[in-house]
Amino acid sequence: MQINKIEIFGYGKLSHQVFEFNQFQAILGANEAGKTTMINFIKDMLFGFTKRKATHPYAPKDKSEMGGRLYITVDDTAYIIERVEGKNGGNLKITDLNETELPPELLKRLLGPINRETFDNLFYFGSPNLTEVGKLSKDDLETRIRQVGVIGIEQWLELKKSIEKAADELYKQRGKKPKLNKALIEYQESKEKLSEAQQSYDEYLNLNHQYQELLQKKQELKIQREHTFEQLRTVQADEQNWNNYVALDKNKKEQIELLPGFTTSDLSEFKELVNQIDFLKAKIRDLQGLIEQQQEKSLKSSAEYNLYLANQSKFDDLYLQLDTQMKNERDYENLKRDLRRQEQDLELDNEAAGGNDSLEFNDDDQTEINQLLEEKQALKTKKTFSKTPIADDKPNHTWKLLMTIGLGLVVLGFVVGGIGLFTLLLVGLVLVGFGFHLKSQPKSMVSQEQTVDYDDQINKINQQLSQIAENHQIKNDHPETWTTVLQTSIKKRNQHRQQVESLKQDLHNDHEKIVSYLNSWSLPNLNNQTFSQSLNQINQFMLNIHEMKNKIKIQQEKRTEKLNEISDYQKQIEKIEQAQQDFLKKRNVSSFTEFDQQYQIQQVGQKRKEQIQNLQNSISSQMIERLQQYKNFDDLKQKLNKLERVDRENSESLTNLSEKISSVKITIDSLAKNGTYDELRQDLAIQKTEINDLVSKWLTLKLTDEWIEKVLNLASHGRFPQVQALAQKYFNMLTNHHYVSVEYGKKIKVKTETGTKFDVKELSKGTMQQLYLALIFALTMSFSDEYPMPIIIDDGFVDFDHVRTNAAIELMKEISNTTQVIYFTADDRIEKQVKSEDLLKLS
């Protein structure tokens, strides 16, 4: 049996997992990774759950169903063993790879006599009990061998022990205490006494001679009966094997020729091709389903995307201008802010320019105003000096004021420049000169009478100036600044006004450009918000479009990728279909149905050959030679009846002889002349009878013991010598040829290449484990021909060093050529010691 795969529904911490096994399979996992769980899962699948789910130590941690499947191969036939939680070890189901359900009783036939206990003893190697290894004797080893293949072995072994014990209580070769030993000693002593007493009795001697002759005849008759009985047993065996002999002879005439290419492995090969095609077709269906799901879930075209598709070229060109338009929008907002600031500044300029509508003076106006101002100033001066002189005791600061104003006008003239330069310089110099003049005059005298005419003239000049201000819409009451400061402010305001108008025109132009750009998009609600919002809406619109395009592109790429996968799978299917055609063509059949028909014919032929071979194996060549001597079954039966009749006659003759012997013995006893002889003779007779009874009992026990021994040897097919040889070979390999032999006695001993012998208890712990491993493998391999179960090793080398571990692994690899080996370990060195395909890691 080989385990190809395990599928766990729920078992302990393992749930919904699948593991595939090779002929040699190493499984690496740390503590608590699930190694012991997996081992117990395999045992429960083979032999049934020991407990129900509620109390089972490996009940699933989640709510999944406890159980799973074992995928196995037995004699090139694949089976699936499924077992889930239920009564009587769980609900069992066995199918083939086509899921055809087979009778559950098939598992018992596959396992044979192997139960869980036998499996643990022969096919499972965990942490060994080293004390028990040290005590293992030849008898213990033979007992373990016989425990496989014998029904009721425990009762047989118990009976054999009790018989051996009873026989030893009756007689031992060198014993003194057993009953028969004591009786023989006493009998010999009595015989010597009787011999002394009977020397004078001639008649006694004659009778004794007669007695001896009768005894001789009885002995000869017993030998004759044993010979006849042996012949009887042989003929009885012939009778039991006659049917097999006839069947074998008949089948020998049947010529069975098997065509090549129709074995179970060939069927598996073709089914594997079919499975590959089914697998690939399932892959294609899955991919097509995914494509259909993708199409159903594909992005539905939105109104925005449809609008874009209808104007794709236009919108893409417009989108290239978006950054420029955003910059225009920022410039537009900046212009608006600049315009507001300029308009605020213009209001201030209007105030400084004497009103919003004040006009500039031409040259004539400026000349006129300057003349009026000069006349006015001159009148004011004359007015000041035309008054009646009156001594003025107050300090005269007029000259300071005049000089200050004059200097200010000179400086202003240079600042203003242009036409007003001359006027301002002239007036300023006049005021400065007049100030010096006043400073140099003595305290003035003022005349009030001379000021009247000057005031009228000054008023007339003021009216003329007011008229000029009205004509030029000037709202400024300081005529002396009109031709200087005011004209400068009016010019500045007019220039500022032109700048504002220019800004308004630029703002209008930018506004029109942005509006034109927005109108080109034809997007809803675009003109019902600010330019910035509209442009952001356009940007978001295009970002959404690009995102949708990318999603569509990704979907198309995935669809293309799946279509390429489908194409690859279809190509693989074509190759496999071609391989199927080549397979059928090679076997000269046109279809799988025709192949299967021929396969069934070949299987029948193969089974017939196997039946013939089994018949040949069941009958020895010696038996065939004996059976060939019989003409027919009636001839054999006649011989059997004759031997039974002779056996009965011999038995009756022995009974008659025994009676005669007893009669002669009685006569001898009656001839004794004195009581001492009579007593001796009687005692000797009693002793002899007792001895005969004890001998008979002892012989019966020994014969029974030998018969049981033969039965057990037949049942175990003489495996013990094979186990001895294999154990010695494996132990030699494991110890790198240091130990050359294993000897069996009351205790097992081992011998080194130098000839030194050691008891098991004298070995190191690692060497003791190597010996135990060699014995386990030897036992297993001796049964592998009849019961090929996989060997499971659970961290069996924990005490091995690197060299011993390597040797054990190499031995496992060699054994795996015949029997599957599954090795569980937590030692990560295994990664360097086995092929990656033979290593399974548990996390």
From TrEMBL:
Coiled coil: 153-231, 270-297, 322-382, 486-513, 538-586
Keyword Transmembrane part of the UniProt annotation: yes
Keywords for the protein's UniProt record, in alphabetical order: Coiled coil, Membrane, Transmembrane, Transmembrane helix
Location of the YhaN AAA domain: 1-201
Pfam families: AAA_27 (PF13514)
TM region positions: 401-434
Alphabetical list of InterPro entries matching this protein: P-loop_NTPase (IPR027417), YhaN_AAA (IPR038734)
Signal peptide: none
Protein name: YhaN AAA domain-containing protein
Organism whose genome encodes this protein: Fructilactobacillus sanfranciscensis (strain TMW 1.1304) (Lactobacillus sanfranciscensis)
